[in-house]
User: Fold this.
Amino acid sequence: MMSKPHFTWDDLQFFLAVARSGQLSTAAKKLRTSHATVSRRIDRLEFALRVKLFERNPRGYVLTQVGQRFVETAERVEQETERLQAELAGSGPAQQGVVRLSAPEGFSNFFLARHFSKLSERHPNMSLELVTIQQIMALSKKEADLAVVLDPPKAGPYHVEKLTDYALQIYASHDYVARYGAPQSRDELLNHKFIGYIQDMIFAPGLDYLGDIHPKIQPGLQSSSIFAQLTATRNGLGLCVLPFFIARQYADLQPVLNQMKLDRHYWLVCHNDLVQSGRIRSMIAFLRDIVAADQEQFLSNGLTQSRRRGTG
Assistant:
């Protein structure tokens, strides 16, 4: 008579760590154990289940079809374990564990980063893994638990909610305007140097600003990094479309052609399998709160405040 498969929750943790990273070394680092231990635990789990969960190749571990189905089961166990731990601790929804958040560079560096201390105070047992290389993260493959995106998926097993609207405008440094003047009309934009994204590396349609400003603009300096674009703009190398919440932090920048404003949106997206997880719910609530408390900076270029302080 065939015995029933025997494995523990620990085995499922090892399985999920490898499934999410595809690498033994990455999983080992996350679990604070050795490469050999992870390999041994995966072998043990496959032996207990009598199925092959991963294909091994030189680039890492790739889930088999059976393994992909088993991820859903393992994540349901993970969620129930988190709930049970929270109930036993008497702390309500689970507020511990690791959350891997994928978010655009601008949102991450110029807004979220300054709220890290608040996150630590609210959830001292939660660890954040912040990934800003958004174009390579796939929620469908569980490479990220939660994502802030400009363009939400049209379909699929995802929880989607709007986080905030935000506005953008064309900016230039004071030095640039002193040397070259400011454009007075949309067509005059073609007489100025522009800074923008590398066209064939734009990973979200929402980042294609220049096409909305004027279809004939050809940027002389292109970068996949909003930080590099900002630095170039502040150094007087050209005009650049920037979000209010970034540009308003720099007194050496000024908006030009005030009628040319763009609206974009940030959305929160996570897989339906994870939306009930305590750690994910806690992170979503935290992001909602900090954005709601700072709505004015997403929608205002800060000119009134700057003039009041005598800086503009």
User: Anything to note?
Assistant: The domain at 9-87 is CATH 1.10.10.10 (Arc Repressor Mutant, subunit A). The radius of gyration is 24 Å. Residues 90-94, 304-312 have pLDDT under 50 and may be disordered.
